[in-house]
Amino acid sequence: MCDSPGVITNIPAEQVERHDCPKCQAPAGSPCRTAAGKVASSYHIGRFALVPALKAELTVKTPADRHPGKRWTQGAPAPQAPDVVPGAAIRLGYARTSTAGQELQSQLDALARAHCTRVFSEQVSSRVKERPELSKVLTLAREIKTAAPHQPVILTVLEMKRLARSAAELMTLSSTLQADGIQLELLSGPLQGVYDPHGAGAIVFAVLAVSAEVEREGIREKTMEGLEAAARKGNVGGRPSVMDDDKLAVARARHAKGESVTSIAKGLGVHRATLYRHLAESA
After folding, report:
1. Structural domain contains residue 141
2. Cα(42)–Cα(62) distance, rounded to whole angstroms?
3. Rounded to the nearest 5 degrees, what angle is found at the Cα of 65, between the Cα atoms of 59 and 66?
4. Do residues 271 and 162 share a domain?
5. For the residues of 31-46, what is the DSSP string, one character each?
6. Which residue has the higher pLDDT, 80 or 157?
């Protein structure tokens, strides 16, 4: 399925098939395969990203002559391409906000300016243990390193807090990057730059982790101090109650006359559960 040995080709499929696939273990000379044993409709990212001219592509389709969707069979052996020249780093970007309402585009723009090959983004709190897109970017980085151990791979983020909230989480991530030989790049902050998690880089990871946690604790302390100061002045933090004494008095009078809670709540513009709770508390 691949071109003749020694012949340089510009056909994407033939360039890709000069590499083994780190995801499905398809050997050089064969298309990628699915878990069901079929010819995949597209080549796996970790494979085509090894071709310098293709690493910025979002997808590389399997040609029709490879019969995508049909039963996979191994193609004729083909000479493997030499490893990608070290120094041509592959950057994989990751962006995250805690909620869907927070602005994400500025992170995406920064990652684009950093020339990331692929960008993975999600809007999920770092308190949530399962972050699918973070798992995907780490998996892809491992696949590339498995296929080309000497290929530099960099996980790029705008700032450290996009990855985790605690020192323990960040150190766990550091251990993962160390084991897989993946570098970390921070695009902003006092330690902006690219860090190798080995040697001196491991110390930087530890400092970043502790600094991030200290910063969060400082914000929490200031918030609590502000709430306590407001309470001493008679102001209570948080959302104002939708029920006041006047509304409650009206609600009790109407309820005493036999009017339904649903009707009263609708008339006062409050939630039925809220009205039930206040009526019970004032009984």
Report:
1. yes
2. 5
3. 60
4. no
5. --B-TTSBBPSB--HH
6. 157
